[in-house]
Write a structure and sequence with these properties.
heterodimer; A: 376 residues; alpha/beta; D-Maltodextrin-Binding Protein, domain 2; 15 helices; 4 strands; elongated; B: 316 residues; Alpha-Beta Plaits; 2 domains; six-stranded mixed β-sheet; four-stranded antiparallel β-sheet
Chain lengths: 376, 316
């Protein structure tokens, strides 16, 4: 009986055009637009980390050369250095092949740039730091007793240099937008979840009335409906993440399996949310659809998926909302994945999502099953 | 004596201040085609919904096959086929899949189910449309699909709630013939409608409802005996003189006359040869006679006489 119900529920779901459009075409199209909009920014991130610069060969400075060689050997070099004559360097600066010209005069670096911008700032920062460190080293050479203290200062200097990545720590802001998109698609599963109530309640559809007249226990019918929606939404989430990773080229790297996992959990949470909201009250089908859409939108709004700083505002004034808001929990889950190397926070968010799914589904079951209606 | 299939006793259903069913009692025997006739809002569908335990009621009892009907009476539900007023099918499933789905809610054996589904398709004449989706079907074919979904599992009790609303005459006839055939095959049928001709055509016993009350119950003949009118004669003539009108009014068994729109209508109560007597009076006065009609009382006349208003027999 259960498998019979499940088979036809799945068949029917596969042919619901509205959901195919909203849950597959919409995120794919939006992901495509994101990709187009952010691709420029993403390319710039690469430019930030490697600034082309010319170093003049007029005054040979072996110390500078040694430092630059070390820098270029690092995993993500800040500078890409070309050793050029003054004339050639100026020509390339005009042609914007290089962002600046570094000249060493008596061990002090002088910088020439053609404009203002992030790359010029990076070059300026490098030169300032080089000159500052050179001063410290010279001072320590004069007084060997201060070597230990100088080393400490140099190490302090190194740390912020290492940490200051323009993309900010482990965070990849570019990926965050795609995580948010996945979170929204997952939450839109509420619209699929709503149909469980509509198709199983006699007061919401003739189909519900007919099902209620059948000898199939409502618990079986509801479970089949719920499982079919879980399967459908899971497929949608897998397609969504796969499209982002392999078509749009969003690189989730080693997090990819966990992105799939979180996406599936968020989709299932969305479905159960719709099931529960649809089960509340005695409104019409249209009213319930409107309420569910409003709940999803409000949830997304409060979680910051629509307005960037909303979640921090909520965290300041009513932090409990962030703990129980499904959209916040979903976006937090992805955020943890993006921010922390340690997966404990991510796993705890997954557990919260699973518990919420269970609670929402349970409430939906209790409110929907074995109901005799006051009016039809 | 046939067994009682459905027993409704003192059923009361209120919607706030409105009493939708007012102490309704019905008893439906095995093998009957029982008609619930009444205008829209008379309580027919409410009765069906209470009977099926979809709707909570304020008072009374409902028994089907001798057992109390509740939302979890699965053994009773297994023997009931329901054809709702609104078409209740999946738009995303084909004709075959829809019938198979609903049949599968009652019959788990695949082979038996396949046989039942094919028989149901043949029964409603949808053999050429098995791969069609409901949206591609005409209104009449859609109604037939709705019926097939309700009867595929071969129920003992079939409940049809206004199944011919918005259906073309050809499909309507097909549906009515089908219901009679199902009854011949042994099913007890409950049929609600506000189309008196349909109820007259197929129902063996009828309950007439108005404003939540059962105003009359019986066979067609029994219902018609409840009223004074036995024959209504209509004659197209020029306006008759007072003398002619008086002579017709004084004829035996005539209890009412009316002249309107070039037609004289004469209502008779019992007796024979009423038409010949009326025409005799008109000929005696050399009146030019046009078309002549003689009609036996209908259920509409029954309803009219009992409630003082006509049944709605047109589409809403």
């Amino acid at each position: 009986m259960f498998l019979h119900n499940l088979k036809y529920e799945l068949l029917a779901q596969l042919r619901v055009r509205m959901f195919i459009i909203w849950l597959l075409v919409f995120p794919i199209a939006l992901g495509f637009f994101f990709k187009m909009a952010f691709s420029g920014i993403y390319e710039k991130q690469d430019v930030f980390s490697t600034v082309p610069a010319a170093v003049l060969t007029d005054n040979d400075d072996p110390q500078l050369k040694a430092v630059l060689e070390q820098l270029e050997k690092s995993e993500k070099p800040v500078l890409k250095v070309s050793y050029l004559s003054a004339e050639e360097a100026e020509r390339q600066l005009k042609e914007e092949t290089v962002e600046g010209i570094i000249r060493s005069e008596n061990g002090v670096l002088k910088l020439t740039v053609a404009g203002e911008g992030m790359n010029e700032t990076i070059l300026k920062s490098f030169c300032d730091r080089y000159n500052s460190n050179a001063e410290i080293i010279k001072a320590s050479a004069a007084d060997p007793a201060r070597i230990a203290a100088v080393s400490g200062i140099l190490m302090q200097d190194i740390s912020p240099v290492e940490d200051i990545r323009l993309s900010g720590g482990n965070t990849n802001y570019y990926d965050e937008y795609f995580y948010n998109l996945i979170a929204m698609v997952g939450l839109f599963g509420a619209l699929i979840g709503l149909t469980i109530t509509i198709e199983n309640q006699a007061n919401l559809s003739p189909l519900g009335a007919r099902k209620n007249c059948s000898p199939t226990p409502k618990s079986v019918s509801l479970t089949a409906s719920l499982v079919s929606r879980f399967i459908m939404q899971t497929a949608v989430m897998i397609v969504c993440v796969t499209f982002q990773q392999f078509v749009l080229g969003v690189d989730y790297g080693r997090n990819l399996p966990l992105v799939y996992l979180a996406a599936i959990f968020s989709g299932i949470l969305g479905v159960s949310l719709g099931f529960m909201v649809g089960s509340l009250g005695r409104g019409s089908k249209d009213l319930k659809t409107s309420v569910t859409t409003a709940v999803v939108m409000l949830s997304c709004f409060l979680s910051g998926l629509m307005v960037g700083n909303m979640k921090s505002v909520i965290a300041r004034y009513v932090p409990i909302v962030n703990e129980i808001n499904p959209a916040s929990v979903i976006s937090d889950c992805f955020h943890c994945l993006n921010i922390y190397d340690d997966y404990s926070r991510f796993i705890s968010k997954l557990i919260v999502m699973a518990v919420m799914t269970f609670i929402f589904s349970f409430i939906g079951f209790i409110l929907t099953r074995r109901r005799r209606y006051a009016s039809l | 004596m046939a067994d009682t299939v459905v027993r409704i006793d003192n059923l009361v259903k209120r919607y706030k201040d409105l009493i939708a069913l007012d102490h309704l009692s019905l008893e439906i025997k095995e093998g009957e085609v029982f008609g619930l006739l009444g205008p829209n809002g008379s309580g027919k569908t409410t009765t069906i919904n209470c009977l099926l335990s979809l709707l909570a009621f304020d008072k009374g009892t409902v028994e089907i096959f001798g057992k109390e009907m509740t939302p979890t009476s699965y053994d009773i539900k297994r023997e009931i086929g329901i054809i709702m007023q609104n078409v209740a099918v999946f738009d995303e499933l084909t004709v075959y899949d829809n019938i198979d789905y609903f049949c599968g809610l009652y019959i788990t054996d695949k082979e038996e189910r396949r046989r039942c589904v094919e028989e149901a398709i043949k029964f409603v004449g949808l053999e050429d449309f098995t791969k069609f989706y409901p949206k591609k079907l005409s209104g009449g074919l859609l109604r037939r699909l709705n019926i097939a979904c309700g009867i595929a599992h071969k129920p003992k009790l079939i409940i049809l709630d206004e199944p011919t609303v918005a259906v073309d005459p050809q499909s309507r006839n097909k549906i009515l013939e089908g219901i009679e055939e199902l009854n011949r095959q042994g099913a007890t049928v409950i049929y609600t409608s506000h189309y008196m001709e349909e109820v007259e055509q197929i129902c063996t016993r009828i309950a007439i409802m108005d404003k939540g009350h059962k105003v009359a119950e019986g066979t067609k003949a029994e219902l018609k005996k409840m009223i004074k009118n036995t024959e209504t004669i209509t004659v197209e003539i020029p306006e008759p003189s007072e003398e002619v009108s008086r002579e017709i009014s004084e004829l035996p068994h005539v209890y009412k006359t009316e002249y309107k729109d070039d037609r004289l209508t004469v209502w008779c109560s019992g007796g024979k040869h009423n038409l010949i007597r009326v025409l005799g009076v008109l000929q005696d006065h050399d009146m030019h006679i046009g078309r002549v009609y003689s009609e036996l009382p209908t259920l509409n006349d029954v309803f009219l006489e009992i409630t003082g208003k006509a049944l709605r027999d047109k589409e809403d």
